[in-house]
Amino acid sequence: MDVSNLFNSNLDQIKISAIRRFDQEVSKIPGMLKLTLGEPDFNTPEHVEAAAVAAVRAHESHYTGMSGLLALREAASQFVAEKYDLQFDPESEILVTVGATEAISASLMSILVAGDKVLTPAPLYPGYEPLIQLAGAEMVEIDTTTNGFVLTPGMLEAALIANPETKAVILNYPSNPTGVTYNREEIKALAEVIQKYPVFVISDEIYSELNYTGEKHVSIAEFAREQTIVLNGLSKSHAMTGYRIGFIFADAVLTSQIIKTHQYFVTAATTVSQFAAIEALTNGKDDAAVMKKEYVVRRDYIISQMTPLGFEIAKPDGAFYIFAKIPADLEQNSFDFLIDFANEKQVAFIPGSAFGKYGEGYIRLSYAASMTVITEAMARLTAYVTEKRGL
Fold first, then answer.
1. pLDDT tens digits for 104-153?
2. Which domain range does residue 119 map to?
């Protein structure tokens, strides 16, 4: 009996991530230098690894509670209080998730029903829309390309008025793919708009510790707490991508509902990883500082090399990405541009089209790679552009 046509029909709208598909495609080319994926090239701090090993040796191999270890939730509560002036009760307002990805999934699946709309600044991380579609809802992109990739209160309010079916607004800052972030005044102004409407804010702050402005990261939960679901985790701040530890911070009324979805998705996050996470958030609360210093050097070097070639770059103040506009005299289809570049020079970036329709004409580089790789990639890009221009 053929059952291949019995899947959830919403899956027909969903494809494997364009980032992953492009990365796999160019990985077939011998000698490839890749500045594609958003994964720190740093190792997990040794003291965090030691905590994981100690947990294994202590036979910490059993389920934790659905919300995660209380000691970890207490550490997370203290961390966001000290870092971002946020107050969340570890008993009832924090959930430990399987990475920020599961935090996104659990949050969206808990609030969305068919016919809902979700507003997002664009270009944006492509991991949101498939989940929105799976729920039968619709994502509405707000074009920020004419404003340095910054969402303004006016843009947000106009979109809310035009889309009365809106259930949630997703903010991701510092942003993947642009690296743009927001200061206190900007976030407060966005919160004032949101508070006028009965909508959720899903604030994906996974890059909060990679903020290069010299100012403290400001969460929108500071201003619109009752409506906000804050997502965070340790993948970027502590180079712990494989540990899969994320967090949801939200008012108890919200977490009491989201935990139902979280429970049936995963039961609980991995126990050994949770013990490592306690170490990361206590003795390693400033571990990101070393990485930040190196990321700034890499960022500035890439900008210094690409700008003379004619690439327009809105200086990223966070995360570890460069989102550059392809010069007008070169191929404007970002996929075609980068496939040709990969074949000619064995260097891979990510096409801007992977980040939605407003990303076309741009390319994204991840500088979560060694300076050696970055230097060589920039030399090859310079040679490629020079050759294309016949210079």
1. 999 999 999 999 999 999 999 999 999 999 999 999 999 999 999 999 99
2. 46-284
Q: What percent of the chain has pLDDT over 70?
A: 100
Q: From the centroid of its chain, how far is CA 130?
A: 15
- Residue 3 within any structural domain of the chain: no
Q: What is the 3-state secondary structure (H, E, C) of 358-372?
A: HHCCEEEEECCCCHH
Burial environment of residue 83 by CB neighbours within 10 A (0 to 12, 13 to 18, 19 or more): middle
- Helices (DSSP H) in 113-235: which residue ranges? 129-134, 153-162, 184-194
**Which of these, 330, 366, 324, lies nearest to 149 by C-alpha position?**
324
Kindly state whether residues 325 and 366 are assigned to the same domain: yes
Domain check: are 131 and 273 in the same one?
yes
- The answer to whether residues 255 and 95 touch, using CB atoms and an 8 Å cutoff, is yes
Residue keyed to tokens 């007008």: 328
CA distance 324 to 270: 38
Task: Report d(CA 175, CA 171) in Å as an integer.
Answer: 8
- SS3 of 188, please? helix
Cα separation, 374 vs 250, whole angstroms: 39
146 and 180, same domain (yes or no): yes
> Would you say residue 60 lies in a domain?
yes
Q: Are residues 278 and 336 in the same domain?
A: no
Residue 310 counted as domain residue = yes
> Tens digit of pLDDT for each residue in 258-271?
999 999 999 999 99
62 dihedral zone (left: phi>0; alpha: psi -120 to 50; beta): beta
> Measuring CA to CA, which residue among 286, 205, 228 is closest to residue 93?
228
Report whether 197 contacts 164 (CB < 8 A).
no
Q: How many domains are contained in the chain?
A: 2
Q: What confidence category does residue 21 fall into, taking pLDDT thresholds of 50, 70 and 90?
A: confident
176 and 28: one domain? no
Domain boundary among 284, 308, 324: 284
Angle (CA) 112-113-114 rounded to 5° is 130
Last residue of a domain, one of 284, 318, 339: 284
Q: Which of 246, 166, 210, 194 is nearest to 321 (CA)?
A: 210
CB under 8 Å to 373, separation ≥6 — which residues? 33, 35
CA 127 from centre of chain: 8
